[in-house]
Amino acid sequence: MLSFLHFTIINLNPKQTPNPTDKTTMALITLTTLTTLAILLPLTLLAHRILYNLHFHPLSKFPGPWYLSVSSLPLAITSLLKIEPYYLLRITRKYSVLDHPIRIAPTVLLFPKPSTLGDIYWAAGNNTRG
């Protein structure tokens, strides 16, 4: 029995005992293990990132499409296609609730009301000079 991922060599022929030093069997199991890890590790990391961005990120409480909250790729594609202003206007009309910010990327908020710029940039508490 190999300890990594708990693979067990099953002997189908009861008269023959498995040889734990057989290099062919160990190489096949190692290759199988590496292939499995090469497939599962990126999928696990991607699932972790999706779940984190949707449910545990500090900006997860803001409304917006789930696919924009997960990745910046859809917004980058709309920018490359030169339809970003129309796309953001459509999202603003769909998700705008009482002029609250809309999440358009994992770390980006869209403020649909221009008067919020004064609250963000010109508030006395935000402009402290040390």
In the sheet with the most strands, the strands line up as 1-2
Cα separation of the termini: 64 Å
Counting H and I runs of at least 4 residues, what is the number of helices? Answer: 5
Beta percentage is 5-15%
* Low-pLDDT residue spans: 1-7
**How many domains, as an integer?**
2
Helix content: 40-55%
Class inferred from helices and paired strands:
mainly alpha
What is the average per-residue confidence, as pLDDT, rounded to a whole number?
A: 81
What string, H for helix and E for strand, traces the elements in order?
Answer: HHHHEEH
Q: How would the global form be characterised?
A: elongated
Could you give the count of β-strands? 2
Largest sheet: 2 strands, antiparallel
Rg measurement, Å: 26 Å
Secondary-structure blueprint of this entry?
Blueprint: H1 23-56, H2 66-70, H3 73-80, H4 84-95, E1 102-105, E2 108-110, H5 116-121
Antiparallel strand pairs: 1-2
Structural features:
130 residues, mainly alpha, 2 domains
Structural features, described:
With 130 residues, this protein is mainly α. It folds into two domains: 1-56; 62-130, no CATH class. Helix content is 50%, strand content 5%. The chain is built from five helices and two strands. It has a two-stranded antiparallel ribbon. The model is unreliable at 1-7 (pLDDT under 50).
